[in-house]
Amino acid sequence: MKRHASISLAVPDLPRRRFVQGLAAGGVLLGMSPFIKPAWASGVNAATGRTPILAGTEFDLVIAEAPVNFTGKPAIGTIINGQMPAPTLYWREGDTVTLNVTNRMNVSTSIHWHGMILPADMDGVPGLSYPGIAPGKTFQYRFKVQQSGTFWYHSHTRFQEQTGLYGAIVIEPREPERFPSDREHVVVLSDWTDTDPEQVFDNLKKMGSYYSRTELTTPEIFKQAGMEGFAKAWKERMVWNRMRMSPRDLSDVTGYTYTYLTNGVTPEGRWTGLFSRGEKVRLRFVNASSMTYFDVRIPGLKMTVVAADGQDVEPVSIDEFRIAVAETLDVIVSPSDDRAYTIFAQAIDRTGYAAGTLAPREGMRGEIPPMDPVPSLSMADMGMDMSKMDGMAAGGMAAMPGMDMGGSQTVPIQHHYATEYGPMNTKRTAVASTALDDPGAGLRDNGRRVLTYADLHTIGGPLDPREPTREIELHLTGNMERYLWSFNGVPYSEAKPILFHYGERLRIVLVNDTMMNHPIHLHGMWSEVETAQAQFQVRKHTVNVRPAQRISYLVNADARGRWAYHCHMLYHMDAGMFRAVVVA
Amino acid sequence: MMSMNTITIRLRHALRPATLGLVLLSNSPWVLAQTDAPMMMNQDAGMGGMSMPMDMTHDKEMSKAPPIGSLPSSDGAAPKGYDAYGVALRMHDDPLLAKVQIDNLESAHSSDGTNSQQWDGRLWVGHNLNKLWFRTEGSSSKGRIGEGDVEALWGHAVSPFWNLMAGMRHDLGTGPTRNWAAFGFQGIAPYEFEFETTAYVGPSGRTALRLKTSQDWLFTQNLILTPELDMNAYGRADSQRDRGAGVSDASLSFRLRYEFSRQFAPYVGIQWAGKFGETANMARAAGAKSSETRVVAGVRFWF
Lengths: 584, 303
Hints:
B: mainly beta
């Protein structure tokens, strides 16, 4: 039995910095001592950042509220063992792990092991797996680790994830790593706000565009007119205005309130991971954000993607990837120069970024590249039927080489549920993109090799050769104006559970009616994404669905019990974009 | 230690080992890094030094499922509700919220030198689709309310952008008190017009109609110009309140605000207000002008 306390650093140094940059020495202001550095852990190429690692088969995790400071303004975080992010948990495939989670807060809490295949009562979703962990109580999780790779864990109670209750899980495979590296770093990306998340949610409910700071302005129409003529610019703007929508509606919560963190460190503080020249460095990216998609690149380095959502994939070399909320991605880089490299993670709406440094020694800093222009959604992102649009809208398509307007990568959506026509849902996708090779608005045609799902091939193919026997079609619906989110126009509170028959293999078809990306996460079972031609593509625990995209995946209903199924955008989830799945 | 050319693939869950290609490794940096590991590489990995003849192609036939849309389809909903399946989770996806929104709270200085105060605000309490609204607008000068009203309405969302409004209105200010039943719509019209229209019916057959519309023009994310058009009409004259039949009055205003935050914005603006027809005659008879231009300054806020 191994039992380790965690590490904590108290650095109460509070100079005011530019807000989005955050404090150089921000973070948890709580000192917990004494601590023991795990001997086992030091054998792993531990990060030089401050996130400690815990390894073994038995863990004590203590959840408490603690003062934190990332921006110069003191706030309260919900943290584990005095750490934010929570300690990285190192497990071994095949081990049975025991986790004693103690709640030292005065509200209920929970921990969900994201992407783990485990019994339903160990999944950590209050009201589905168990009642949650009451104040002062300890819940013991115990399950066999049946997989390996990069995963993460987080609270599944209200907005505790937003206030810091998340950490990475790294599971060492039973067999040696398929893609060995000389060193590895966990890179947990997240978003922090000083505002109480209950207040953030209320703000959004009262004004959907509350945090939107990149709206197209009136003068910009003249700028646009200079490029493409006034008539066209005006017409295009009018199309959006007629729909009462904004082509800049990329994120609900933005850098207007968020400070973006790398392993809990602000861009100003700049988390640093070390390498030795010539080493193969594995970076285990986890997007532990509540609401932020990141576009990640390391200028000067090619990244070889070797795993997605903890599942080994055929290696693919890229310059940049978009990581949806709750996804994980493992890449290997080989920095060969004696210089600092910047891990640059722009928020999808370009209102800020997380940044870290890869350097051959401490004290070095990479340069921060300029952020890309703010992307605008196209009419195709809106799921408009282009055949019914005039030349203007088609002109808007010029910037979308990924889309085949001949129709081979689009499909008309003939059927919408009656419940999608009410006030819960603003629009219905008429023509959906089925393209897996579209990197999405803001990354199309940017001159860099950008990862898409079409590049991800899970090694070993699907888990089960059986054909699916039925389909469950769900439409992702929402109303930005009223801040309502749901499946099929029906929020969780008004829905019934989704029933999977134990032992069946079924297909889930998702159609995104909204103009936002949604990372859809099924607990307890894998989501095996397929191409539009129904061919296996990649095994995921969280599937991103672009605006106006149709995507499908196969699920083996091999895990009895009650499971959560939801959009992993935290405020979308709590607004009702959630279903209970019952496997019986 | 495995031999270099027959490295088998570790299959954690895969059920079709035969469909996977064997990997031949040569000169791989991976091998240099750790020669005893089972591994497989893809040719298009694009990493220097990796050139491995290999067949990573999965068996297309085996992994190809029936076409999407060809299978029996449903929304997957269980026949019974949460309780039947032991689902205890209840989400607060329809919270009770309240919002106080003061669009205009301003001081107006008219071209003839008179000063007045004007307000236009609303409050709602309620859930996603059903809210109780209070709306009020009016003006006062020298501490006395000239004209104005308060409304209490039930607002029900009938479409993504529109609410049906039903309730009552109570007139304030000079003249006898008038009460009205109110019925109308409120929402966002195409082209992003904030739009409000309400029909009123009073005792003894009085009728009235009010229309308000505005739009936000962003100069920057913080500097916003809001043109607004307001109009009132009455079914028949009400001389005690100086209202004629027909369109009685209208105003067009332009307010330029600076949002120090989303919730607080001071502004300056200009307003043209006019009375028409019979109402204009009544005003002139009382020695007042039938139209005037005002400079306004005030604050807009909500919480």
